[in-house]
Amino acid sequence: MLTAQQANQGRASVLPSVLSTHWQTVLAEAEHVPVQYTPSFIRYQESYFGIEDESQIFFNDNRPVAVWPFAVKDGWATSNGSEVLPPLFVAGLPERVQKHIITDCLNHLNGTLDRTGHNQWWTNEVVRKDGISLWHRRVLEHGGEPYPAQVELFVDLGWSYERIRTNIRKSYRSLLHSGKKDFDTILGMNIEPLHKLHIEVAGRITRSDETWERQQEAVDAGEAFVVYLLDKAECIVGGALFHRSRDEAAYAVGVYRRDLHDAPLGHLAQAFAIEHMQVLGLRWYYLGLRAYEANEKELQIAHFKEGWATHSFPRVTACIHRK
User: Fold this and answer.
1) CB atoms within 10 A of CB 238
2) Alpha helices in 30-69 (DSSP H)
């Protein structure tokens, strides 16, 4: 771990905390901020997975220049309960400084393996216009084993809404037209109705109250929003929550009354959310992984998401095995 003095010499010093204003400073100065780097999303995943947060803030010349969502779950290195993410840098940070920070991250990962007794960790990233990142290249240079690329689905919110609507699967367009006659869609600030409906539909409590509290905090902080579906009697029949950063949004949870499973409630929620994302000035809507080999339910979800996507980007994965 580097000291403040070393940071003044052009190296990176590290401080733990995703709650620091320094973290927000890096997000404000980064070229693009995925949802996975927002403090509220990290706190939610921490509660959901019961992980030990060890997220890092890196400094150069006393200036915060990078953040790294990192945690340990049952001894495994992770970011937000999944594969380890790359550090996020402020725009224009010299490559030599990026390399120093990446080296510090890799050293921290090695230390985690020493401490937990595990011998491997995984990382992945979505590849867009700039190609594979310096992080991924350095991981491969350090012995990372590459795995076949997968496909991630996105909606380009820079398109006009009419163009997005025309692009979606034809059957969805007719469902939206008919669904709007029977249901209204509104924006909500309180997730408690969504919480209660989730328990009602599931028939049981599926996750802790703390996770719902974290998502309410995300809404209050402007890092998430809720969409509700109402019937003609103005009763809530469905809802969905979307996390967001400055630049993109991601679908988090949705629930709809079982007796209305033939109604296009999920389609209406998606369409309304996309319009709201455009009002917020977001650039991308992350739909998630497009599974091709999975169980029937997962394949149906993948088919549904693909019907909305405007872009498919490769996701590259690597695994570090240490003997």
Assistant:
1) 24
2) 39-49
Dist. CA 144–CA 257, nearest whole Å: 45
Task: Report pLDDT for 229.
Answer: 96
Dihedral sign of CA atoms 221, 51, 47, 299 in order = positive
Is the CB of residue 135 less than 8 Å from the CB of residue 307?
A: no
**204 Cβ partners below 8 Å, 6+ apart?**
none
Around Cβ 197, how many Cβ atoms within 10 Å? 18
Strands (E), the chain: 13-16, 52-53, 56-60, 63-68, 71-73, 76-78, 88-89, 120-126, 145-156, 184-188, 224-230, 236-244, 248-256, 284-289, 311-321
Q: What is the CATH number of the domain that holds 183?
A: 3.40.630.30
Does any domain span residue 290?
no
3-state DSSP assignment of residue 263:
coil
pLDDT on residue 297: 87
Strand partners, 57: 15, 67
- Number of structural domains (the chain) is 2
Tens of pLDDT, residues 224-256: 999 999 999 999 999 999 999 999 999 999 999
Q: Can you give the pTM of this predicted structure?
A: 0.91
Closest C-alpha among 115, 74, 72, 106 to residue 87: 106
What domain range is 76 assigned to?
4-118
Contact 287, 168 (CB under 8 A): no
